[in-house]
Amino acid sequence: MLLTKECDYAVRILRALKSGELVNVAGISDREDISTQITYKLTRKLERSGLIESQRGVNGGYRLKASLEQITLLDVFKAVDQNMMVCDCSDGDHSCSRNTREHPCMVHLEFCRLQQLMQKELSEKSVLDVIEGK
Predict the structure, then answer these.
(1) Which of 77, 56, 57, 76 is nearest to 66 (CA)?
(2) Which listed CATH number (3.40.50.2000, 3.30.470.20, 1.10.10.10, 1.20.5.170) goes with 1-84?
(3) Per-residue pLDDT reduced to its tens digit, 25-46
(4) Are 63 and 20 in contact, with CB atoms under 8 Å apart?
(5) Which of 77, 110, 111, 119 is deepest in the core (most CB within 10 A)?
(6) What is the pTM of this model?
């Protein structure tokens, strides 16, 4: 599983919204040293996933829809990257000639185990835990 810069930036965007106040894209970008282009892209993804909400207009911006204690790293990473896989073969729909019912692939089984472990750990860690160093 590649945790991209977008995953990092998405957590930082949520950190910029921690106060619960409405913050515009320029404010988020300045607080977290992220380009406005990336901030726009990621706020749209976070909004589509239901983690943040927007208010349009001159005094518009973004705010959290839930507390950072309720939002897990898994929630954030799935909002940014729908196909969070350790590798292609850990996807249930992936077909591989080396992994069959008659001859299961041990590499595939290990990657699936790691995928489950990673998702479990990410689902148990809130964004608040991360930004407060817990």
Answers:
(1) 76
(2) 1.10.10.10
(3) 999 999 999 999 999 999 999 9
(4) yes
(5) 77
(6) 0.84
